[in-house]
Write a structure and sequence with these properties.
By secondary structure, the chain is α+β, with helices and mostly antiparallel strands. It has six helices and six strands. The chain has two domains: about 110 residues, no CATH class; about 55 residues, no CATH class. It is flat, with a radius of gyration of 18 Å.
Length: about 170
Amino acid sequence: MNGGVVEHFVLGDVCVVLDVSGHVQVITDNRVSLTASSERAEADRHPIGSPAKQAALLRMKRQELAARNQPGGYWVAETNPAAVDHALTGHTHLDQLRRFAVLSDGAARSVAFGLHDDWTSALELMQAAGATELIRQVRAAERSDPDGTRWPRNKRSDDATAVFGLLTQRV
């Protein structure tokens, strides 16, 4: 927070969801998913753990790595300080922010899998039952689809981290 303004910085597999005056905004860096699209589609055709999936994932990862921290590709801060210049940034006036969430891509699967119709309903769940419940639902969905045939993905389970915040009425 900086003088009544909340700033966001998004890079990599992070999703920021902001409820600003009742309008939900989602900021996510999808540049990695835009690379190796044909290789990704091929990997998604195969069940998790199969030799065909493994081979397709190797081809996909090679293409992704070639685009990593490159103009026109995607950026990861890891060991390249210049990556910060390519982050998605913005700000929201604190007096307009009602609630927010910051999620890893594993937790964002709740909307990607269709467990929630949209980000508004995901925010409502976290407000009512906490971020833990959102992650519990994602894990249950992953367990119900161990081969990744219903919800194509690279691995059975991904890191799932979520932070939810609700701003109270100011006097």
